[in-house]
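Open question from group meeting: does this chain pack into something compact, or does most of it stay loose? Before anyone orders reagents, we agreed to write out a predicted structure and look at it together. Recording both the input and the output here so the notebook holds the full record.
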Amino acid sequence: MMDALAVVTQLRDLASEPQNREAIVQDQGCLPGLVLFLDHQDSQVLYSTLQTLRYLAESPLNINIMKNELGMMVSLENLMERGGANDDIAVLAQEVHGILSAPEAPRTPERSRRKMKPQFFLNSSNKKAKSVTLHIQGLDTTDKRGLCEDALLKVRGVISFTFQMALRRCTVRIRADLSTESLASAIAATKVLTAQQVVKNESGEEVLVPLCTSGAPVQENASLPDYLPEDESPERDTDKAVSRTTAKQDSTGSWLNAAAGFLSKTFYW
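Structure tokens returned:
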């Protein structure tokens, strides 16, 4: 059963991969649904929606489509004025608004690029594992590395992790259904470390994306197995988040199709 947070979280994870961004914006249901989520009452849904839009805005071809989407700029401006307890939301809304307002991208009709079929995506919800790279503020000693290791080992769904101490980074292999915010929450619980996600924009440059840790659930392991069961090991062919397929063209539809259907049923009559 899909809910708003599950849908926007999955869209955000898809949007974190540069090769997915144009296809998401081209879809007939996803971008209008994200705009509607900007008025959602749940702060986690709001923050995840803004993160998704921030990823999508990294593609220059998406800029004009996004800023011309009905309600997009007005909703962002409303969030920018909120402030208060939702300061992180206001800051991220201002960042997205600033990117969309920059007069750089060539003019593109609002709907002209939304022709890609949802079957362009494989069913991402069936993938068993994914990799996340985190920049960890405070990761500067072996003791703090030990704290980070202990925190990650407690999180149910973490498969493996490696550290780059010189860069203060940790690459974590996790189950596909585990949110990145859960990792950030576990790390923040150390009281001396904080995490941001490292992603690449369309130019290949690395950028840091802030992660919301308030309210993010963290399921802890009751016990730690010596080895990850074979059926839970990460798939080898996971370099590509998107690939074309002909064998599944007649299937009941991809996850993206299901998400678009959820958005339509939720917001449209």
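Observations to bring back to the group:
Residues 105-126, 224-253 have pLDDT under 50 and may be disordered.
The longest strand covers residues 129-137.
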